[in-house]
């Protein structure tokens, strides 16, 4: 049923219209402190997008959140391959070809209800079907939410089975994108009380999102390799005697080739065992299927890219979770557990590697080209169409047990224990089709196949490699985490409350398998990569990346009136350390050595915040001022002159200073109108660099716009027959940002603004709405990278017009 208390739109602490004639602000109940409380009653910087706001803004997937949340940005490049950043605490753009075993742990934790789904390199992209709310907790939340809650935590909270009665709905939509293909979506939900104490809730969805990026014709030769360019190993040679064969992409060219689809279902059951105990169980399955890429080449025309091999992703996950709630006397007891299995199969065009790969010609050119004699280079270089076949299988189990005392008492406490075990199996096959040739070098024939994996080290593939596979990463990564945490709240007076929190953690990260390559192995018939056995490389003192420690939190809250709250907070956060597969590799000048193990990076946050309801509860103003110190910031580095594998290091210290806020106003003079807006102002700086060849002191952090802002207006009025009409419009703005603190891997994304609008009619059991997104057809640059020395920019969807219809039964 349509609710007249429709949540206001963009960045709110979530307010609503409860009556057209007398608009009032209403809090949203959240569980950000692991207990239910109003957003206005907890001393945390939190944004809560409620169910009505999610529907009104048309939020469906990961990329939609970003437009309406100042202070929140993302790196990555499309569905299933994004990473969240909060308050500008960001260093490195994730790379999809090493998304798992070599990926940094995110510094923003991602939760689905009670279960953490944070994964290295890229988080799960969960479709926003039948969500109750999205909670965004800003600043370190590590004492309650553990590792990776370093800069904040994002929680997707689903609607739970409702024992009060049968209910259901169907939502359908269709949209047209300028210069793109149409999109369609269908979602259905049903809530069924099976008995007096058992209820089921099921939701299913499918969403086909039409493409808008064109893969255009292009040609490319090895002459453009980094080796042959000025500054490369052979940049000054005369290549007039070399025949360069062209890579052509005619078979891959296509308009609107970046199609995506989300398909999934979720089933949950609630068993009210008795008045004190209940069991909630759930199962979910989702598939993301994409073709093409979601970024453009700024050197080509609008919305164009030239890709030479097929890009596709098939990303599946299954999730099973269970939560037991109960009471033991005056104590509340919760045990929650989850198991998630994710399989991501992808084919990635790797041709851009040509622009940084100094040794590419060695594999696809005649030997006399790469190592010319007295007569200079001569011979043939094959077409440089390169690709990677990637298979990443992830299994995660988590368990948490916690006890809470009576939350109405003067002294209140939560204590708990946490355990998680994650295993990632990654098989990346880097394929250079022209490398199967036999070439002459010093009068002898050599080649690059067949090749064999290191026996005893492989975790997925054994035996002979496929033709053309030059490198293969066949690695198992395990992350085991343990934690004990607690938080104590003590009412010093009726107006002052002190909060103390702490968490002990212990984390182990291990690698097993092989990261191996071909090297003149023509005629081999057995294992010839034993030296790449990671179990041998990571032995002795380099056996594991082990970290443990204690972080803390201290907060003082002052509530001088029922409509005002002020707080000051000191809090800490951390992110796990990691192992480097190319540990020990040395730069050409000998000034830098890749470490075998990388330590945690840590943040300390100082924050002053306020939450105010003013003008007889018609105006709400929440905000905070913060200062963040970052120590030993982790970065990912790609430098082929050192190694052709990505590696990581603790590279720098940094500082972030900021102010953020949100305002919601329901003016009494205009019944039915709600205005809301939010802003984030950041000043970031690298204060000390430990690897000056990569990171420079004084530079800004990545994905840290100086200003982000959003403004939303929604007006509702009564129509004949008891129906409601509504119109809504929003505008969002972001300053320019850099995409990496490693200068050679970074580009600057332009500032942008987006404008959207909607209008519709609602009755007791249905809502119909027309909407427009990106009305000005802006190319909002929301992410990008230059890892391979070529700018690749992710932009928002062009102007899109659509229709949404919801029917409740």
UniProtKB/TrEMBL annotation:
Residues 313-775 form the TonB-dependent receptor-like beta-barrel domain. Keywords: Cell outer membrane, Ion transport, Iron, Iron transport, Membrane, Receptor, Signal, TonB box, Transmembrane, Transmembrane beta strand, Transport. The keyword Cell wall biogenesis/degradation does not apply. SUPFAM superfamilies: Porins (SSF56935). It comes from the Bacteria. The keyword Iron applies. It is found in: Cell outer membrane. Residues 39-153 form the TonB-dependent receptor plug domain. One of its GO terms (cellular component) is cell outer membrane. It is a multi-pass membrane protein. GO terms for biological process: iron ion transport. Residues 1-23 form the signal peptide. PANTHER family: FERRICHROME IRON RECEPTOR-RELATED, TONB-DEPENDENT OUTER MEMBRANE RECEPTOR. Belongs to the TonB-dependent receptor family. This is TonB-dependent receptor. It comes from Pseudohalioglobus lutimaris.
């Amino acid at each position: 049923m349509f609710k007249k208390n429709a949540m206001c739109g963009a960045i709110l602490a979530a307010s609503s219209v409860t009556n057209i004639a007398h608009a009032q602000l209403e809090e949203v109940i959240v569980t950000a402190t692991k207990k239910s409380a109003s957003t206005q009653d907890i001393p945390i910087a939190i944004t809560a997008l409620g169910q009505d706001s999610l529907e009104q803004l048309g939020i469906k997937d990961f990329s939609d959140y970003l437009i309406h949340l100042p202070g929140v940005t993302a790196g990555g490049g499309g569905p299933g391959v994004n990473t969240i950043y909060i308050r500008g605490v960001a260093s490195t753009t994730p790379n999809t070809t090493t998304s798992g075993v070599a990926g940094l742990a995110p510094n923003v934790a991602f939760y689905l209800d009670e279960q953490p789904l944070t994964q290295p390199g890229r988080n799960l992209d969960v479709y926003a079907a039948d969500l109750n709310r999205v909670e965004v907790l800003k600043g370190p939340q590590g004492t309650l939410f553990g590792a990776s809650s370093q800069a904040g935590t994002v929680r997707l909270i689903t609607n739970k089975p409702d024992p009060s009665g049968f209910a259901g709905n169907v939502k359908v939509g269709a949209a047209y994108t300028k210069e793109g293909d149409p999109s369609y979506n269908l979602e259905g939900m049903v809530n069924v009380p099976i008995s007096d104490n058992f209820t089921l809730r099921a939701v299913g969805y499918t969403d086909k999102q039409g493409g808008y990026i064109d893969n255009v014709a292009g040609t490319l030769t090895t002459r453009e390799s980094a080796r042959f360019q000025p500054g490369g190993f052979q940049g000054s040679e005369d290549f007039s005697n070399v025949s360069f064969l062209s890579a052509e992409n005619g078979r891959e060219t296509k308009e609107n080739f970046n199609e995506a689809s989300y398909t999934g279902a979720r089933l949950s059951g609630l068993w009210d065992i008795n008045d004190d105990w209940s069991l909630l169980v759930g199962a979910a399955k989702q598939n993301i299927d994409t073709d093409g890429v979601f970024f453009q080449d700024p050197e080509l025309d609008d919305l164009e890219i030239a890709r030479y091999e097929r890009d596709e992703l098939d990303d599946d996950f299954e999730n099973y979770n269970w939560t037991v709630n109960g009471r033991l006397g005056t104590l509340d007891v919760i045990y929650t557990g989850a198991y998630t299995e994710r399989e991501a199969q992808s084919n990635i065009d790797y041709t851009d590697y040509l622009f940084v790969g100094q040794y590419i010609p060695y594999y696809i050119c005649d030997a006399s080209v790469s190592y010319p004699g007295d007569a200079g280079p001569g011979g043939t270089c094959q077409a440089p169409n390169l690709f990677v076949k990637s298979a990443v299988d992830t299994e995660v189990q988590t368990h948490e047990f916690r006890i809470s005392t009576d939350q109405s008492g003067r002294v209140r406490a939560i204590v708990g224990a946490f355990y998680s075990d994650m295993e990632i199996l990654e098989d990346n096959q880097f394929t250079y089709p022209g490398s199967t040739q036999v070439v002459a070098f010093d009068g002898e024939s050599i080649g690059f196949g067949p090749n064999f994996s290191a026996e005893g080290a492989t975790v997925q593939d054994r035996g002979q490699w496929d033709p053309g596979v030059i490198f293969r990463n066949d690695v198992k990564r395990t992350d085991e985490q343990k934690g004990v945490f607690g938080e104590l709240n003590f009412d010093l007076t009726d107006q002052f409350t002190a909060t103390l929190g702490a968490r002990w953690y212990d984390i182990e990260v291990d690698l097993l398998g092989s990261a191996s390559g071909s090297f003149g192995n023509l005629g081999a018939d057995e294992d010839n990569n034993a030296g790449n056995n990671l179990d041998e490389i990571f032995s002795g003192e380099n056996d594991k990346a082990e970290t443990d420690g204690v972080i803390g939190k201290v907060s003082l809250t002052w509530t001088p009136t029922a409509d005002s709250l002020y707080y000051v907070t000191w809090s800490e956060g951390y992110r796990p350390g990691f192992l480097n597969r190319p540990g020990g590799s040395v730069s050409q000048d000998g000034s830098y050595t890749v470490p075998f193990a990388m330590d945690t990076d840590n943040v300390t946050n100082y924050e002053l915040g306020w939450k105010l309801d003013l003008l007889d509860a018609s105006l709400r103003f929440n905000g905070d001022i913060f200062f963040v110190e970052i120590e030993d910031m982790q970065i990912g580095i790609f430098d082929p002159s050192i190694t052709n594998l990505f590696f990581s290091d603790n590279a720098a210290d940094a500082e972030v200073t900021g102010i953020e806020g949100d305002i919601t106003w329901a003016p009494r003079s205009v019944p039915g109108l709600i205005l809301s807006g939010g802003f984030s102002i950041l000043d970031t700086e690298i204060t000390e660099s430990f690897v000056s060849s990569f990171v420079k002191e004084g530079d800004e952090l990545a994905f840290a716009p100086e200003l982000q802002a959003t403004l939303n207006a929604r007006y509702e009025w009564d129509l004949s027959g008891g129906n409601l009409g509504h119109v809504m419009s929003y505008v969002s703005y972001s300053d320019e940002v850099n995409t990496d603190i490693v200068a050679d891997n970074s580009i600057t994304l332009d500032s942008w603004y987006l404008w959207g609008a909607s209008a519709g009619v609602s009755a007791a059991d249905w809502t119909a709405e027309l909407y427009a997104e990106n009305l000005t057809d802006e190319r909002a640059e929301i992410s990008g990278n230059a890892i391979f020395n070529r700018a690749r920019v992710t932009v928002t969807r062009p102007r899109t017009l659509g229709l949404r219809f919801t029917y409740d039964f």
